[in-house]
TrEMBL record:
Protein name (database record): S1/P1 Nuclease
InterPro entries, sorted: PLipase_C/P1_nuclease_dom_sf, S1/P1nuclease
Sequence segments annotated as region (Disordered): 367-422
Residue spans of biased composition, Low complexity class: 375-395
Gene Ontology molecular-function annotations: hydrolase activity, acting on ester bonds
Annotated organism of origin: Hymenobacter jejuensis
Keywords assigned: Disulfide bond, Endonuclease, Glycoprotein, Hydrolase, Metal-binding, Nuclease
Phylogenetic placement of the source organism: Bacteria, Pseudomonadati, Bacteroidota, Cytophagia, Cytophagales
Amino acid sequence: MLVMKLKLVPNNREIRAPTVTPHFYSMKKLSFTLALVLLLPVLSPGWGFFAHKTIAQLAVYSLPGSMQGFYYRHMGELVKKITAPDERRESDPAEAPKHFIDMDHYGSDPFGAMPKEWDKAVAKYSADTLRKYGTVPWVVTEVKEKLTEAFRQRDTVAIITLSADLGHYVSDAFVPLHTTENYDGQLSNQAGLHSLWESKLPERHIADYKLRSKPGSYLKDPQAAIWQVVQRSYGFLGATFDMEEEVSRKYTPETKYTYSHKYGKTRRAYSDAFADAYHEKVGGMVMNRLQLAPTMVASMWLTAWKDAGSPDLDLLMKKPSKEEKEKLASELKLWKDNQLVPQNQLLAMQKEKTVERPDEIKSAVDMAPAPTEPEPAVAVPAPAAQPAPVAAPAKAKVKAKSDDGIKQKTKVKAAKTDDGWN
């Protein structure tokens, strides 16, 4: 019997054609496989929005003073836009492969086998194969070149947009699960691992992390630098899977997972208790990747700026006020003292203001209560009742006959009462 191996696809992955493997399964095992498919894990894109926003903010702090003022002025916009690559996956089919590269697809020595230059890699494997199994290192160098051109053109809008995109792709390269075909543990009975590692762990334990990153520096070879990041991430895969399996031995399915039902589907996620136990094993790894990513993002921004001739970014904005300079200095001190989280200065932890849409009709629960009539301060006595107007006689017709035999008609018409409408 032919059994199809189905891959549960996270939001940041392309939907790949299922592979068909000849194998003989009992009906019992087949039923179990289908049950696993129906239990959809709760998945998240990229690092998770929380971690991506954190990396963007820390990258701004990691820049030299000649760039920092400009990037700090636009830091709120950068933090918001760094999640845009994940958001446009739904509308752009070509977006998904830009976030990962499945190195284990290329054999037992993938980094020795894979040419680092795009043209040579295409000649060896074909562009279709490369896009199927991910292109993140090449996308990073491509977007870096676009950012360099934006600096040359002094295009503020393009600089911020491309800086956010570049920061996103660089950050994704720091996630071990972005370097393997088993990206969600779906091939090792660990489905849901993707979201656990890169979203739930940092969101629950960000206060435990040291967030001060090293300053960014000029990269003589950006291509070699990003490939080194991918290779180091790949090296963490063994511990990522092994530690999950080790912790799982202490849990039953009832304590390991939580379940939710929505739109006729059952969704499964790791429980908080399991997440905390797993974090004790891999928390140092997660913090390491989260701490190093801002430095590389800042280094890529700095390299693009220098390659463009180091244009004066102060000319692209209004002179910063005294208050703005003081605010930046205060945040830099908190960052160096690892006090951003305790002092609630980490933007990813702050709730965004909801933008009201004039054409939005809210539910009855969310609607603002109807305004109530204010009670009069002083009771005013009611005016004396006016006497009711005397009703005029109803209209009548009277027929009479005079003595001379001539008929006479008399009409009586009632007078109208003033009802206030005239």
